[in-house]
Write a structure and sequence with these properties.
By secondary structure, this protein is mainly α. The protein has one domain: ABC transporter involved in vitamin B12 uptake, BtuC, CATH 1.10.3470.10. The protein has helices at residues 2-26, 32-39, 41-51, 56-79, 84-106, 114-118, 140-158, 160-168, 170-175, 180-202, 204-219, 225-250, 254-272, 278-293; strands spanning 129-132, 135-139. Strands 1-2 form a two-stranded antiparallel sheet. Helix 1 (2-26) runs antiparallel to helix 10 (180-202), helix 1 (2-26) crosses helix 11 (204-219) and helix 3 runs parallel beside helix 5. The longest helix has 26 residues, at 225-250. The chain is globular. One of its GO terms (cellular component) is ATP-binding cassette (ABC) transporter complex. Its main location: membrane. It comes from Bacillus salacetis. Belongs to the ABC-3 integral membrane protein family.
């Protein structure tokens, strides 16, 4: 039964992250998820200092709050002339460093279990179950990540047109009266929520990988956003299933194996995509040259 739960949790993370990842890839902000997963450390430490408790709920609230601060700072720097990749790098390294300092100064003698909070292991997720009246209703991760996935689907479904126009042409969206900044923060808020809801249970590497790799792969396979979202979700699900069994055969990290499979799929698409594949492009070029020679 644990096999089923692990694969389901991986698939939910993949789908939840892929929906948002497509918009991040189009906006050239794929590394926002990675930034959030590192920059939440000061939020975790501050939550402990204020509450005096190592309960995961308080730490996740602190992480979510700093995640939103991260998004705000990145956008503020971009609006004031700093390039996107530079603003992401500056914010997450600075906040992560502040978190390290806070740990060394205020929590040196306390086991905050930061490895668990920041880099959880998906193999252990099925053991943390949601119980009411002594009855188990499945792993907590399924409910948390599943809830984030449904929320993402609901918001993207309701405002799909607005998100699409804002991603492709913000100037046109503003001319049509669409509040571009508002939808940017809504999207970034969903990324923050999804990242924080996922990484305690499954690990940061799985969250960051699933935000970037399936969406980047789907980008090479289609020119239509709706198809890109569906393809990225399918790639994420396939990666979760194949990655689990690969980890079982190799006795390796499950999250690492899932992302390795996703990376292998990306490599194949990069080489053999009908429109963007490197090998296909060279083959077409050689064919054209040979036809012209005739």
């Amino acid at each position: 039964m644990n096999d089923f739960w692990i694969i389901l949790i991986g698939a939910l993370v993949a789908c939840s992250c892929s929906v948002l990842g497509c918009f991040l890839v189009l906006r050239k902000m794929s590394m926002v998820g990675d930034a959030i997963s590192h920059s939440v450390l000061p939020g975790i430490v501050l939550a402990f200092l204020l509450s005096g408790s190592r309960d995961s709920l308080f730490m996740m609230i602190g992480a979510a709050a700093i995640g939103l601060v991260t998004v705000f700072l990145i956008q503020m720097f971009q609006n004031n002339g700093v390039q996107s990749d530079a603003s992401i790098g500056v914010v997450f390294t600075a906040l992560f460093a502040i978190g390290v300092v806070l740990v060394s100064v205020f929590a040196r003698q306390v086991d905050l279990d930061l490895d668990c909070v920041l880099y959880g292991e998906i193999a252990y997720a099925p053991w943390d179950t949601f119980q009411i009246g002594g009855m188990s209703f499945g792993p907590v991760a399924v409910w948390g990540i599943g809830g984030a996935f449904l929320l993402n689907l609901l918001i993207v479904g309701l405002f799909y047109k607005q998100f699409k126009i804002c991603s492709f042409d913000p100037a046109m969206a503003a001319a049509l009266g669409i509040p571009v900044i508002l939808f940017h923060y809504v999207l970034m808020g969903m990324v923050s929520l999804t990242t924080v809801a996922s990484f305690e249970s499954v690990g940061a590497i799985l969250v960051v990988g699933m935000i970037i790799v399936p969406a980047a792969t789907a980008y090479l396979l289609t020119e239509k956003l709706s198809r890109m979202i569906i393809i990225s979700m399918l790639i994420g699900i396939i990666s979760s299933i194949a990655g689990y069994y690969l980890a079982y055969v190799l006795d390796a990290s499950i999250a690492g194996s899932m992302i390795s499979v996703a990376g292998a799929i990306f490599a194949l698409v990069f080489l053999f995509s009908p429109t963007h594949g490197l090998v296909i492009k060279k083959w077409i070029r050689r064919k054209l040259i040979s036809e012209e020679a005739l």
